[in-house]
Amino acid sequence: MNHLDLILTLTGGLAAALAFGLLTRKIGLSPIVGYLLAGILVSPNTPGFVAHKDLAKEMAEIGVILLMFGVGLHFHFKELLAVKKIAIPGAVVQSAAATGLSMVIMRSMGWTWAEGAVFGMAIAVASTVVLTRVLVDNNHLHTKVGHIAIGWLVVEDLFTVFVLVLLPAVFGNAASGEAGGGSGGLLLALGWTTVKICALVAFTFLVGGWVIPRMLSYIARTGSRELFTLAVLVIALGIAVGAAKLFGVSMELGAFLAGMVVARSEFSTRAATDALPMKDAFAVLFFVSVGMLFDYQAMLANPGLILITLGIVLIGKPLAAILITVILGHPLRTALAVGAVLAQIGEFSFIVGTMGRNLGVLSSEAFNALVVTAIISITLTPLLYRGVVPLERWILKKPFGARWRERTGEVRADHSPDTDAEHHAIIVGYGPVGRTMVRLLR
Question: Taking the domain 57-282+296-393, which CATH number applies?
Fold first, then answer.
């Protein structure tokens, strides 16, 4: 690796993201689309400047960690418990539906049941980065829709952790033609994964909940803003890496838990203000790195497979989410918004797909279909989310929509999805006094 690769990749990737982000924003599209186009521009599959793919991926991982830390910082545990009645059954049923549908369709195309199952599990989980970014861009992260969607994603992330542990136990010897680990090995892997996740949560909230507030209080008394910023970054990155290395779960889940622990301290607002502004720049690199994976030749080689995968992701998954949300008693607009924001795949899909390919279960064409589907679905998700309100109006104007409204008594005003705009306060200025007021009002 050339000693200039890091700075060239960072500069080239961010410069291209800035240019295309401004362009797409100018024409009324989400900047996410521009970031993906920037990744395609600097990828090995297009002429001109080529960024270092591995370095871009590593820097993107930092952005994902900081982004999830920020989400945890603003997502209190009581909010997670408040949506457990929809997040847990919703994520489980939707993941099972996506996996089952994929298995049946892919089996009819000549795939094995195992390949269809792994492929289905890869497309069952949505991208945390994309979902969070769409909610933030629309100011819905702290609404009912935001709480349901984030809780849903946390359950999906846990599901993915189990998948990543179980795949080697089931298909670990697939490449050599031997049988997998058997039911005994499967149950052992499942039990061990459950123990590790429980241990991580207990360690983070019991030990971290005692150590971290005292650590931040001690450093804050030094009066050094730089030391406080460093402390927050060490907490976010340290717990994320520790979650992966010591407990075998995803760094994203570890970062999310770290943010929830810091949120319980009196320094949560200061941590968000001082230490997290750089997360946006690094998060942009996630989308750039996804764009760098795009290969137009792979798209042209298997258009049928890609169209089927897009159908499952853009139609099957949202429909399942909408039906589940409505059945559990939530308003139509909430259901449509949750369905729209979950109509994509991302980082966890690549992780599951890569492991499946390394174990000899997934073919290269299946992995390429995941990449192309991710890029297209990520591009369309912001547009789908903007169409929630017009779609709801259209549905309620139809005869079946009118009957639905009469039966449920649902009346919606013409505002964006479930903004929960009540019991709010407006604070002008966000200095030390403003931050204290925010903490007290919460």
Answer: 1.20.1530.20
